[in-house]
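ping. complex inputs:
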Amino acid sequence: MTEPTTMKRQPTDWKSPDMVQRIKRRYAAERRFKAMGMVAILISVAFLAFLLISMASNGARGFMRTDVRLPIDFPASTLMVDPASFKGSSDDVDQLLAGLDFEGPVAAAAEQAYGAEGGALLADSAWLIVRDAIKADPTLLTRKAELWVPASSDVDIAYKGEGEKPMRDRVAAMKQAGQVTSGFNLGFLTGADATDPTIVGIWGAFKGSLLTMIVTLLFAFPVGVFSAIYLEEYAPRNRWTDLIEVSINNLAAVPSIIFGLLGLAVFLGLFPTLRSAPIIGGMTLALMTMPVIVIAGRNAIKAVPPSIRDAALGIGASPVQVVFHHVLPLALPGILTGTIIGMARALGETAPLLMVGMRAFISAPPASFTEPATVLPVQIFLWSDEVSRGFVEKTSAAIIVLLVFLLAMNGLAIYLRNRFETRW
Amino acid sequence: MKRAISAISAMAAVLALSACGESGSGGGARDSIRAVGSSTVLPFAKAVADKFAQKNPNFKAPIIESQGTGGGFKLFCSGVGVAHPDVANASRRIKQSELDECLKNGVKDIVEIQIGIDGIVLAQAKDGMPINLTEADIYKALAKTPYGQPNTAKTWKDVNPALPAIAINVYGPPSSSGTRDAFAELILEKGCDADPAMKALKDSDKDKHKDICTSVREDGAYVEAGENDNLIVQKLAANPNAVGIFGYSFLEENGDKVRGVPVQGVSPTYASISDFSYPGARPLFIYVKKAHLTAVPGIKEFLAEFASAWGPDGYLAKHGMIAAPEDVRTKNADIVANMTLLDPASIN
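pong. complex structure:
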């Protein structure tokens, strides 16, 4: 047996080469770890910047429209209509205008002004602008007029410095002569889907998204909040509530396409006439959002200190009073944050809505919850698949609108949390 | 007690939910036309719907959805009534099985209208080496088991010594697409039947023939590019050695980036597709339920708008559709005017 070594510890020799080496290694490890974190952040920031910059640079052009100056001599054109007949209700005028051929005279005017292929400079829908101008001011018909009408996608692309060379030169010459101009396209924010990319608008899809979100909120919020309250405040702890809890957590992780199939089978099975309607889409998304709200709600309710419940019960409040007068108001900021995050996820959802038919071509914004509609992400998906080149930048512009909508919702969530949050 | 209350409130919630839905269904009338079906016909149907809505302010704009030809017929044939679509867009004729399904569900009076022709084209980037393919070349390059043998071809030269030694790299539609079905039927099957043994097999064992002739290889030489044809165009522009398969309208729209690959010596052009000399030409159809003519306003006008637009000078040509020959157009204009019913015996 050897003698036990003396337990007395030598003071650390910080200067010994071994120790210097070890300290160096420690610092190096620290620096490496910091550098790795920094690289991770830089990579994610780079991705974000790439997304935002490419979207903004492509999408910004989607908000612009190129217009061509079109001189029309209405009395000399083949447009045979007497300005005096523009009387009566606006329906009568619509009916009268619908019976007229505008495309011929507009194409003829374009050819007169810009040569044989002048018609190709104008968008397919240019005649609609002429029609609206005449509707607004029938006296135009008695004189020569100059109207700014949307240019075709080729001209639009050439104006922005892309596309084929001959067209670019042509457009540059027209620009010199003041025959073509570009400006903010208000129609993009107020119109609905169309076949002609120069007149498409995002409002139809935006309104569809809005209506769908309202339905989702109306169904998911009460159900989610009451489930959370019941599970936290009333439910006895037993096997059944455990099972429900596990199921709800699992439900929150179910892929959204499954909810789409469920919506197709259940909701559309019950109400087949409501295909593509926001109410069906909203109900489908509510199924998806509800578990998120339950989980966020339970966490928020759990975070309310038991002392508040005890105090309220102690001075004689009933359990319902405790919940509605004390627990719920204190938990509400957390519940709302969870709700808005769930809604933001629902807003970006495409797959389940494709299943319930919200992918149709709809050229008028939905007027009610039961009218066919589409939503922003689906609209983006549909436009990305369009044949016409003009849709490329419209797709990016629509993405910007969706991102702004999402940012606004998340901003609201942060505001609500900061405004109403109580700390203990 | 608490349990009872929660049960009651749950039931109330369910009732409220169903009541809400019911009030939404609004009686059962529908005032906008509903069309479903092929994504190839979609741009043309959309253009017609747009024009129809602009010209007829008293009718509501039609709602057009695309699920593919097969999915469209499934909905179309599910029954008669406002809950079911009025029009099915199709990039091929209705199949016997689909017609049977229709008849089973009471959809009896169907009007079949050929609206025009579409071409399935093979294309490559403008700066790629020009190649000339035959149906047999394409079949040998893309089939999973050409003539029953495993496919070992790596370059086009392996398929046909006259072709350059560039790797076979083809972007095309997925198996769920009607374009893929048509590609298999119009080009692969013909290339396959170039071998007399395969032709004989068609009579003896139809299923095996179909398997050998239309299965596409899955080893990476054929890349399924999803339903997004713009993506294929982008890939072609980036890779001059690749070949893409898509509809003629995309070739026309992207003429500055890609050009058509001649098949059997015929380039895909408007003229060669319209007279069917290009092998990838196929007719496009719409199917209409005659029973809906009175129930849903505007169907007749919508069809008339279609008929006015499908000529060579009509606006559908601008969207990339190829006009049918004159006699076909006249015949179909008659069908639109008289609502002549489809003869079930003509489907085989």
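The longest strand of chain A covers residues 64-73.
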